[in-house]
Specification:
Strand content of chain A: 15-25%
Distance between the termini of chain A: 10 Å
Radius of gyration of chain B: 22 Å
Strand order of the largest sheet of chain B: 3-2-4-1-5-6-7-8
Largest interface: A-B, 43 and 46 residues
Number of strands of chain B: 8
Bound molecules: guanosine-5'-triphosphate, magnesium ion
Order of helices and strands of chain B: HHHHEHEHEHEHEHEHEEH
Mean pLDDT of chain A: 95
Number of strands of chain A: 8
Oligomer: heterodimer
Structural class of chain B: alpha/beta
Strand order of the largest sheet of chain A: 3-2-4-1-5-6-7-8
Helix content of chain A: 40-55%
Largest sheet of chain B: 8 strands, mixed
Helix content of chain B: 40-55%
Radius of gyration of chain A: 21 Å
Strand content of chain B: 5-15%
Distance between the termini of chain B: 6 Å
Amino acid sequence: LFRRPVLDESTWDELTQLLMESDIGPSRAFRLVEHAREMVEGETLKTPVEAETALRRQLVESLGAAEPMLLEDQPGRLAVHMVGVNGSGKTTTSAKLSAYLRHRGRSTLLAAADTFRAAAIDQLQVWGERTGTDVIAGQQGSDLGAVVFDAVHAARMRGLDTVIIDTAGRLHTKTNLMDELSKLRRVATKADPDVTQVALLVLDATTGQNALMQAKRFLEAVQVDGIILTKLDGTAKGGVVFAVFEELNLPIWYVGSGEKLTDLAPFDHLAFVNALFR
Amino acid sequence: NLTDRLTSIFSGLRSKGALTEQDVEEAMREVRMSLLEADVNFRVVKDFVARVKERSIGGDVLQSLTPAQQVVKIVHEELVALLGDAAPLRLDGQPPAVIMLAGLQGSGKTTTAAKLALLLRKQKQLPLLVAADTYRPAAVDQLVYLGKQLDVPVYSEGTSSKPPVIVANALREARTAGRTVVILDTAGRLHVDNAMMEELREIGALSRPSETLLVADAMTGQDAVRVAEQFHESVSLTGLILTKVDGDARGGAALSIRQVTGVPIKFLGTSEKPDGLETFHPDRLAQRILG
Ligand SMILES: Nc1nc2c(ncn2[C@@H]2O[C@H](COP(=O)(O)OP(=O)(O)OP(=O)(O)O)[C@@H](O)[C@H]2O)c(=O)[nH]1
Ligand SMILES: Nc1nc2c(ncn2[C@@H]2O[C@H](COP(=O)(O)OP(=O)(O)OP(=O)(O)O)[C@@H](O)[C@H]2O)c(=O)[nH]1
Ligand SMILES: [Mg+2]
Ligand SMILES: [Mg+2]
């Protein structure tokens, strides 16, 4: 792609296409290429390889400022709220997170707070069995707050330090469903005044520009602390994370790259940018 | 929105006198931005804008008193033309007709299967749902639960049998029980997972569906093209169902998929409920993509 010695119009076209197709967004893509073009005119870049390197560096830098304290490093008791739109991977990721944190010395409990969707509780219970994790569940149709309270309370009673709360998928356009989320933190505090709360937005890497609106709304509703980017094992690049981080200051905490329990890892921004250019 | 942006561009250019081809190029940049922001694929946008430019230059835009409106009108017409008309479900051949649902993980296949079953029953068909996803935890339970809710029979063999075997047995059962339509809910899979795509081909080969529908999320970004191309190559899609249209994603993926595979858009998923399935209207979807 950039092995040609000459930097010409087709280089810029290819770079624009590559960035655009990664879902980085049109204004960001055009702005980045424009900036690289200026550097070429100013003679600081001379070859396609140099142009690509300059772009890579800029992208790495734009994500590098994020240094979230990951769940495994947080002291004290934790309540992790897993939120996001329908089908993004919350339930699967809740299970992955449970296994991941146990391997790092934490003790976990899963809360089946999706009391709405068909077999959502069953789904989490299967994962609970597979990971040897207790699952606190309510009745189908029961109140989200009640399950959260019971789970946080149970963890405290059983001496477990981490509660992972799997919530129902919801489109951010549904105000009543978003309002339902907004009471989560208060409920958890009632059950355990000393619990540290983290809300993570589970975002599908195949999502396009709508990701920014999703992140905005979930940030407003439940003060999301970070993103878990799922399904990066597909061909989508997840370029929306640049806008989400730059405009909302929401960093990526973890990445889901498959359907197995072990397919979860901390976000590596260097590897992520390198994958963009593949 | 696009009309406003074009209006301000043209009013700025108007002051110099008559509009030129160069001015149209400026307007095309706005159209391009708007469609890219709507998640229409980069290459699809290139071709699309080239067509719009041609029509804009050849048409009345240069002489129009309202060039912005003219351009938007052309864009809208081209979108509608590309999206095509809504197409009904094809249930031809010896009963039971088979509808196979396929797509990426989490796109809405299982929920859509139930929605289709309800729709078909309302159309006096006798649907049978088939739980052919043995991979996802409680996927079978999910479909069984939905079937019970709707009082539609579900064929399942738990997770111990392989999906092609389940489908073959389900077809036999459907013939015996006189069901007229069989709806296959398959596991979500990646278009780059060769083994899973081979499984889908196998299921298609033995069930000979009259409809092979790609179930795709309305919020899908640029990758929609690649996904649709691969699925189409593997199992010859006959239609598209776009889900989660009740969100606020512009839905450009629909345009990309349509352009690249040529398959008609059959339905839109507009809620999580079993009645949340609507026929697609090209005019409305074009409006939404335009923003
Ligand atoms: N390939 C791939 N599939 C994933 C990943 N994470 C989740 N999935 C799959 O995505 C589908 C949806 O996952 P769920 O965990 O049910 O998603 P959810 O957000 O809980 O869905 P709702 O509760 O219905 O909103 C399942 O088929 C998962 O196996 C991932 O990282 N890669
Ligand atoms: N709001 C809304 N939600 C939908 C729509 N269609 C499906 N969903 C939701 O999207 C999520 C995923 O739906 P599923 O039917 O489990 O998706 P799937 O494609 O079968 O998932 P896998 O089998 O894991 O690949 C669920 O929470 C559904 O309720 C829709 O049209 N609108
Ligand atoms: Mg879930
Ligand atoms: Mg399913």
